[in-house]
Amino acid sequence: MMRRLSRVCACVLAAGGSRRMGECKLLMPFAGSTLLERALEAAAGCAAEGVVAVTGAYADEMAPVVRRMGAREVRNLSWARGQASSVRAAVLHAACEGFDAVMLMVADQPFVTRSHLDALLRGRDGERAWACLSAAGGRSGNPCLFDKRCFPALLELQGDEGARSLFRRHSGIPVRCVHFEDARLFEDVDTPEDLARLEGAVAHAR
Q1: β-bridge mates for residue 55, sequence order
Q2: Residue 55 belongs to what domain range?
């Protein structure tokens, strides 16, 4: 097991309104737990020291789960303005708490595990890379890790811009992709059909 990396904060982004699901998808039963619990468990098990859940639309419902899982809660009161508001909330928390890097993960990707997160942490490569992205199947995306040198750029994001959008604005940022074999890493849950399909896939993968 990797030693704890005291200056890295793992932030689970869980503020969305689950519009296409019609109810809080992160708290619906999924493979014996919930998507929120799976994400927090993966974050808590990896080598990052701090674990934070950024909540929003369903903050009151999520708060007991976040506490029970031993994570800290950061409430994003501006969640309806888009994903960038949650990224900013996570980065501001990491900066205020003195972390040197933030690892961002979204809570609706059920194939993300502790081993994925630890591989991403190892990918910092002695902190030479300012950012590390997950890559599989010719794509890159979440989870991703950003050194504090990226914090000012991340705080510039607006609306539905995700963290990766900063590379379009700041093309000179040193970035490294950490490659994984299983492209299911990027599968996410948006609809009831997604929930049923991915729950079956997760059960079959055990």
Answers
A1: 14, 75
A2: 5-205
Backbone dihedral angles phi then psi of residue 151, each to the nearest 5 degrees? -55, -45
Which CATH number does the domain housing residue 44 bear? Answer: 3.90.550.10
Residue 7 burial by Cβ neighbours in a 10 Å radius (0-12, 13-18, 19+): middle
List the one residue out of 117, 122, 169 whose CA is nearest residue 144: 117
Bridge-based pairing state of the strands 139-147 and 131-136: antiparallel
**What does pTM read for this prediction?**
0.93
What angle separates helix 35-45 from helix 59-68, to the nearest 10 degrees? 40
Number of domains in the chain: 1
Give the alpha-carbon dihedral of 102, 91, 107, 180, to 10 degrees. Answer: -30
Mean pLDDT of the chain: 91
